Amino acid sequence: MELQQLRYFVAVVEAGGFSRAAARLHVTQPSLSQQIAKLEQELGQPLLDRLPRGVVPTEAGRRFYERARRVLAELADATRCVADCRQALEGRLIIGAIPTIAPGLLPGLIAHFIRQHPRVEIEVVEEVTERLLQRLDEGLIDLALVSTVDIHTAIHTETLGLEPLGVLVPAGHPFARRRQLRWQDLEGQKALVLSELHCLGRQVNEFCKARDVRWQVWFHAAHLGTILEMVAQGIGISLVPISFQPIADTRGCRWIPLQEPVPRREINLLLHNLRYRTRATLTFADLARQTVHHAGWTAGNPHQPTP
C-alpha cells in the first residue's frame, strides 16, 4: 500500500467522483482509477460504489476513509515538525476566521506578521464556525479565530477578549452627532441585521431581546459588507463590532458606542490539542493575543473610540 493511493482515495471520496478528484490532483483519470483499483484489490473488497452520477464509499470505504485521512494528517504534522527545525521562521501558515472577524482583525494582524516574518507563506480560510472546527479537526488549518463556540474535547479554546459592539449609522442620521447612544434610542429604528446563520446575527438578536429593543428589521444580510453599504446609503442602522469602525469610516459611516450594559462578543482562538503547532502558528497566536489585549477588549475595560 502506498501513500499516493491513500491520497487518491481520500480525494475521490471528498470530491464525490473520479473526474473531479483527478482534476483536483492534476492527474489523469485512468491513472487515478487504476490506483484505486489496486488499493481495493490489496484490501480484498470494494471501497467505492460506482454510480451513474458519481461515487459513494461503501461501509468498508467509510471506515477506511476516516483512518486514511488521519494517516495523511499525521504525515503532514510530521513534515511540518521537521520543517520547523529551520532557524528562520518560514513554512506555511493556514489561518481560519469567521466572516465577521476576518475583515476587521486579520488585515492588520497579517500585515504585522508578514513584516516580521516575510518567509512565511500565509493562507486564509474564511468560513462559519462549524466548518472551521471541521477543518481544524482534519488538520487543514493551523488555527482559527471565532466568536461563540461549543466546547470540543480535541480543540483548545482560548478567549482572547470581549469585543464591544456599537451602532453603525449613516453620516446624515440624527444619531451621527451623538457621542453615545442608549438602548432605548434604538426603539423603532430601521434595522439591518446579519443572518442568524452567523453567530453575530444570533448574538445581536439575543442582545436586543435582553434589552427589550423593538426596532424594525428591514433586511437580513449574508455579509457585513452588504450591511455597511446599505447603511452608507441611508437605508437603516445596524449593530456591528468595533473592529469594523475603520472600514465604516471609509464609507462615511459613524460607529457609536452604547451606554452600559455594552454588548460584547467573545474573540476565541482555536488550536487543535493533538496536532503539531508550528512556530509560525504559535507566533501568530501570540500576536493575536497582544492585539486584542492592546485594544482593551476586556469586560472591565471596553475600548471606546475617539468621538
UniProtKB/TrEMBL annotation:
SUPFAM superfamilies on file: Periplasmic binding protein-like II, Winged helix' DNA-binding domain
Pfam family, one: HTH_1
Domain HTH lysR-type: 1-58
Molecular function as annotated in GO: DNA binding; DNA-binding transcription factor activity
InterPro entries hit by this protein: LysR_HTH_N, LysR_subst-bd, WH-like_DNA-bd_sf, WH_DNA-bd_sf
Gene Ontology CC: protein-DNA complex
Domain of life assignment: Bacteria
Keyword terms, alphabetized: DNA-binding, Transcription, Transcription regulation
PROSITE patterns, alphabetized: HTH_LYSR
PANTHER family tied to this protein: HTH-TYPE TRANSCRIPTIONAL REGULATOR CYNR, TRANSCRIPTIONAL DUAL REGULATOR HCAR-RELATED
Family, as annotated: Belongs to the LysR transcriptional regulatory family.
Protein name per Swiss-Prot or TrEMBL: LysR family transcriptional regulator
